[in-house]
């Protein structure tokens, strides 16, 4: 599927919400009749279940018992369990677009999604949208529900933030853009409080951001920012990178998955006022311990001088990719 909406429909089909023990069928047809006749008296707790049918409790047990062939895998999401159990207790809630009103967290990982389409707006209660490991190159913010608090786009192909920042969700607290194709310095202007007034966590790791001073000047406007991940960018190679960030963003609690303790903040106190110490260069030391699969040079030293044997010359090219 190329869109989020198409991937969600495929996800519903995979959950089997209309198949036993979920949905409505011969296994609970009296339940269907009761829903069609709202004036009917509610059945007593001890009333016998018609032959060939199951109680809602028995159907739920088939979903929850890990030995059941209908049980979800242990690593499934809470959303999966919720929808399956709703399909047992109130299957009419999952018909048509009504199912979209129940979804608060949507996780579509590695499904070939290329577009965040307008259909995502139909998820009117959506708070968390996880779209990692897809093929998304840009996100149109007008297609994102205003209720969104978490947007995770790790491992995609996002290279520009302009469309995302046109009308961003005002309540967003986490924005994950790690392992994308963001290049500085043109992107830093989109990372300010004007676009993200409630942002608490920001992941920009493993992109191609290079302007540390420019980025810090924009991030300093995010008064609620507490968690920041920048490792894997070229700017992280600058010698005073961590110290400059720690001193420049005094409200930050965690940088690159490492907690900032008061001792560290005291150690780098005053560094933010000395930007001249930020050199736009870095140093990398590469040590090669052992290389396998190469011919042993000693074997060629056994040839006598003047030997008419063939002379074989090997050459190698070693490439370092950053």
UniProtKB/TrEMBL annotation:
- Example of a GO cellular component annotation carried by this entry: cytoplasm
Q: What is this protein called?
A: LRC43 protein
The region annotated as signal peptide is: none
On whether Repeat is a keyword of this UniProt record, the answer is yes
> Is Translocase set as a keyword in this record?
no
Q: Which domain of life is it from?
A: Eukaryota
Keywords, comma-separated and alphabetical: Leucine-rich repeat, Repeat
Record-linked PANTHER family: LEUCINE-RICH REPEAT-CONTAINING PROTEIN 51 (PTHR15454:SF19), NISCHARIN RELATED (PTHR15454)
Which InterPro entries is this protein grouped with?
Leu-rich_rpt, LRR_dom_sf
